[in-house]
Amino acid sequence: MSASLSRPRVGVWLIGARGSVATTVVTGCAAVTAGLHPPTGMVTETPAFTDSGLPALSDLVFGGHDTLDCPLPKRAETLTAGGVLPPGTATAVAAELAAADREIRPGGPIAGDTRSETELITAFADDIRDFVHRHALERAVVVNVASTEPASQGPGSPLPASTLYALAALRAGCPYVNFTPSEGMHHPVAARQAEQSALPYAGRDGKTGQTLLRAVLGPMFAQRALSVRAWSGTNLLGGGDGAALADPAAAAAKNAGKERVLADTLGTVPEGEVHIDDVPALGDWKTAWDHIAFDGFLGTRMILQTIWQGCDSALAAPLVLDLARLTARAHETGRSGPLDALGFYFKDPVGEGPSGLSEQYEELVRFGRSLGQADGEGRAARSVTGPGRTGEAL
Amino acid sequence: MSASLSRPRVGVWLIGARGSVATTVVTGCAAVTAGLHPPTGMVTETPAFTDSGLPALSDLVFGGHDTLDCPLPKRAETLTAGGVLPPGTATAVAAELAAADREIRPGGPIAGDTRSETELITAFADDIRDFVHRHALERAVVVNVASTEPASQGPGSPLPASTLYALAALRAGCPYVNFTPSEGMHHPVAARQAEQSALPYAGRDGKTGQTLLRAVLGPMFAQRALSVRAWSGTNLLGGGDGAALADPAAAAAKNAGKERVLADTLGTVPEGEVHIDDVPALGDWKTAWDHIAFDGFLGTRMILQTIWQGCDSALAAPLVLDLARLTARAHETGRSGPLDALGFYFKDPVGEGPSGLSEQYEELVRFGRSLGQADGEGRAARSVTGPGRTGEAL
Amino acid sequence: MSASLSRPRVGVWLIGARGSVATTVVTGCAAVTAGLHPPTGMVTETPAFTDSGLPALSDLVFGGHDTLDCPLPKRAETLTAGGVLPPGTATAVAAELAAADREIRPGGPIAGDTRSETELITAFADDIRDFVHRHALERAVVVNVASTEPASQGPGSPLPASTLYALAALRAGCPYVNFTPSEGMHHPVAARQAEQSALPYAGRDGKTGQTLLRAVLGPMFAQRALSVRAWSGTNLLGGGDGAALADPAAAAAKNAGKERVLADTLGTVPEGEVHIDDVPALGDWKTAWDHIAFDGFLGTRMILQTIWQGCDSALAAPLVLDLARLTARAHETGRSGPLDALGFYFKDPVGEGPSGLSEQYEELVRFGRSLGQADGEGRAARSVTGPGRTGEAL
Amino acid sequence: MSASLSRPRVGVWLIGARGSVATTVVTGCAAVTAGLHPPTGMVTETPAFTDSGLPALSDLVFGGHDTLDCPLPKRAETLTAGGVLPPGTATAVAAELAAADREIRPGGPIAGDTRSETELITAFADDIRDFVHRHALERAVVVNVASTEPASQGPGSPLPASTLYALAALRAGCPYVNFTPSEGMHHPVAARQAEQSALPYAGRDGKTGQTLLRAVLGPMFAQRALSVRAWSGTNLLGGGDGAALADPAAAAAKNAGKERVLADTLGTVPEGEVHIDDVPALGDWKTAWDHIAFDGFLGTRMILQTIWQGCDSALAAPLVLDLARLTARAHETGRSGPLDALGFYFKDPVGEGPSGLSEQYEELVRFGRSLGQADGEGRAARSVTGPGRTGEAL
């Protein structure tokens, strides 16, 4: 992952930097860079994005916040035992894991934390700026891959941690991506500040499995004028995510995104519920069963069922790398505000955009093309490593 | 289904007119016209096609060829008992079923038929022209919804029945739609004549269930850069179709279309086979199981399975009505040759066109729009009821 | 269903007599008696029970309680439209449906009911006794097939309706079967009285679908020494039952039974939850998905999934007829107390008995045999139509 | 795996000794003996068999024949990469793998083999006897775990390899177990000799996945008097087994066993086919989908589907260990001829016995008990290590 002196490097600052997704991101980026694995699952490595001016995988530098303290190499070992990472890979990139591990700073608030919200934001922003300066990065993108928080309690309650991090990103002058259903930049306080900043942001809630399927099956029913009566789903998952989502409040946040995909693609909300069960025995593996009852011609009742068995971290990691690269390049070329061309990646996308996956893909490809054309003007203008820029955006 | 004197009426001539699909087409058209059921499954009844100048459902007149002699009302009764048609519907449209039944002529060749191929083509074309003239139809579309034939034996062997009918359509000056995997207009003899005619045609093999799914799931894997390793499928179906496809030669024709969808959308042919089993106990209902093994990031193995339980006749019938209307209108507006904008409907579409369902839908909508804009010029120019036109195309 | 004068007839008094299950019971009993359908699903019609001395289907007379007032023939019409009853059957047995309809008495307590619990019990018992006397029945069995009640609130709260009916059965001197998870005879008040009575009773919660499967799959894993880690399930159902079980309290009662089967057959309670979703679009049809994660040799993770698509009323009805016949005969031959040989039929069986389906079946067959051997002695001794017997048991 | 001098040791001679199943057997026996893993999947390690007098796992000594020459430790490495063996296990038992590897002799006939059938049998028998003598084993059991052979071509054709090995077992005086669908001892030539020998034998075709399920679901439908209309199945598997069974002749042998289970438990052969597809991408993992269409009360159509995802080697290995121990003990206690009490383990069991899994389990437990009671008499009488015994049985 060494870069020549002249090649600008880009930071990827992960909130939840010791989690399964983050560990897979760091391991995978190094493994693909080293040629150990093909870049399966990375859309930005397909020919359509060759000329988009994206930062190279070898130019990404990782750091982040986490409240846990399990070292990344150890975490990678656990993921290898669980079948998430292939045998031998974590060992092969041990140096890169150790390097990223050194760049992880304590997150918050932790139990008994006496710091005010402002102090926390300042501390987090300082961590990010320090990371950027020490590594002489051109810019850094903040990506939230932490466990899902419970839905917010409403006005007057403390800011959720995800929003503190989002505000820290703004303050450090960094683009922001929310890969989780947590509130982050959607909180009114953060949304106001985001609007006033000149920073691009994207989110929320990565579309990795059941919702990915729904984003192609919903349009299929709509395009064929078939009438969906009920769409029911059950998700079984272990790992930390299963436990976090066993909290009904956290699950509610997640399910809202899933429902939105159906409502947007079908034009109506069918009957049916979505369950998320914590099944520790499944480890990092997830099974999602969907049962769709629909009416055909003359009201004939038909049924489609889908069973998706995947590993969430392995599904999320390449998308996180895609998003970091696309958002970094968007920043470089002067984009600001919600990046609605990234709806392809999210359950509940910011901004306006189509809801079917195919249209979202077309929009993404168009966006990639426009990022390439924008080259030249943007880079100079918005480099955060230029004097007097980084950390003074707000 | 009465039409005012001034409203031009359009014939729908069904090859396999006493089969499940044809019976459902006739019953359903009448039931929707009468307001007994919403037009679920008919894409041409959605707002996108309001201004396409399509013939009204109430202006369609049905007839066709079949080698069987079970009366349509009786067949509709059987389909009602089997759950394909809702209780009461066939009875409510008994008059329309009887009317269509009167317009069904004996097909062929039958066992021991001594007529030459030319005589058969002539007889079939005469039947169609007679139908058009007696009903003073503006034009008629020939649609093949007969059982799948075995794949052709190659040069020198007799023309398959489906090709005889296709040639009869050409001779009668009628547009042609092949909803089955049979050879029809694809036979070199017919293909040559079709080229020389000024008639539009479409096909082949309606995309109703498993392949419909594949046409949205294939692009999903491709767009997400996920690597499909194996795609296996089993279809269980009863009814006449199950028995016909239990013949390996007939199944081969069908499976070629299914494979084409994967090859075109994935850009590669994955491992895996497709089975079609005749299971008489299932009647007109079909279960299709697909098992897709794919690699995610760093080669992690994941699996998607789909189970589709549908009624083929109920899935096919609205598409047949769509195709009849679109093809009739294409003829009216002067289109000729392969209608590649109709790839949305077929496993193995004629002409050039995208292979993902979403792009096919967009193309269909564009086509519908263009059909509306073409109005005026086409209708007068190509009416087959005008003097000296019908039946003299070849 | 006419019986000769000399043949003793047996009453089947259904709690929830206007529901789907009860309607299917009455329709089916008449249809099988008339030879319109084979007795599929009725274990008591298999050769193993030929000599058990069970009352003939043609000797069963139906009545019952319900708080609804939809006439049985109308209910049967709805079930026919929903595909639960085959077309034509309800019409063919219209007379029997009307006869049963005339024997249904208002249930309770209804909203605003001012009657005391004692008054209700007395009224219910009077209804049953009146039914027995008017038809000169040898005996009557009370069977609860009403919607599931919420789990009881504990000591001091009013007796649940199901328990009022159970007490009425005791007072009327009738054997009692609880086909639902409601409390019924399990309430301490009723349990005490049942013990003092000389009446047989059975229950609870019919094992019709998902739990039936669990009762054979659980033993399979245990016998093969495979280690089940997690057993998760989701049930989708419409009809009244779906709505009733959408109430978490009612679902809790049901799920306890499902869990018991796993605990008893596996010898341990695996991870995993069970969901019951109300999906009105499914009508009387139910889909149950089970996902079982188990360890094989050396800890290899494996998965079994089952999808059960059935119609609960059609699954329950033949079991209800079985139970009515077996319990009537048990009463006739002098059995009293919990009939633990009937565990084959229940999720949460009374008394002691094996939990695997196969052992339960063997026990049932043994019981059937013993019922046959007991003939002669029992009938005279326990006939409830003899002078001074009926209704004076308590 | 050290055994005290006085403890008699038992040989397990594996035909196909370098295959996945054999490698898993050797690895697993050592790992369980060393306490690295619990004996999941081994029925003989459950309390019911404590007093059966079975040889201890630590007293088993492995050897065998194979035509391949991949060393066992290397094969174990491949299985570890494929997820069949847990990480670290093969390394931990490297010594035991190497020891077994040294005891593997070249199988046959190989391509261009000029030896006659008699010469091959003699050579194989000599290998086995040599193994027994060198290790001073009390006895050895021959177990066929090689790839499935094509079904035999009938009278006059050469003896299949599996039968040559079976005859060698007889000649060496060893009990024989056929875990595959190959002909082995079922060939008339071998069957005749087996009858005349005093040796016990068992088989054939291990019941590990789809058929295991069928052996509990078939009885369920029968016991509930539900009428199975069609039972269809598809198996997807990679590994060597997938390739071997892609040969229709080999698949035919396998499917006959699967069908027998249905015919025996249902009392009728339902509609439906079974497919076995070679899907190399699945490696040693297998997916089996079953679709069962059945009629309930009044002919209502219902469906059960099962999806079994397992690792065949991990399912087979503990059963092979069970069978080796049970058969060795049966030999020790003087049993001869077909061991019909072992039907629990086989698709197509030798001898007479029940076909439902539960009854088979009960019979197995009874057999285990009788093996314990037989102790004393048998051991002395039948030890093959006694002077003049081994290899002279025929």
Strand order in the sheet with the most strands of chain A: 3-2-1-4-5-6-11
Q: What fraction of the residues of chain A are assigned to beta strands by DSSP?
A: 15-25%
Assign the structural class of chain A, choosing from mainly alpha, mainly beta, alpha/beta, alpha+beta, or little secondary structure.
alpha/beta
CATH topology-level fold name of the largest domain in chain A: Rossmann fold
Strand and helix map with partners:
4 copies of one chain form a homotetramer.
Chain A: E1 10-15, H1 20-33, E2 60-66, H2 72-81, H3 89-92, H4 94-102, E3 104-106, H5 117-134, E4 139-144, H6 161-172, E5 176-178, H7 188-196, E6 200-203, H8 210-223, E7 227-237, H9 239-245, H10 248-266, E8 274-278, E9 285-295, E10 301-311, H11 312-332, E11 337-338, H12 357-373, H13 377-382
Helix pairs in contact in A: 1-2, 1-4, 1-11, 5-6, 6-7, 8-10
What keywords describe this structure?
homotetramer; 394 residues; alpha/beta; Rossmann fold; Dihydrodipicolinate Reductase, domain 2; 2 domains; seven-stranded parallel β-sheet; four-stranded mixed β-sheet; 13 helices; 41% helix; inositol-3-phosphate synthase activity (chains A, B, C, D); NAD(P)-bd_dom_sf (chains A, B, C, D); Myo-inositol-1-phosphate synthase (chains A, B, C, D); Myo-inos-1-P_Synthase_GAPDH (chains A, B, C, D)
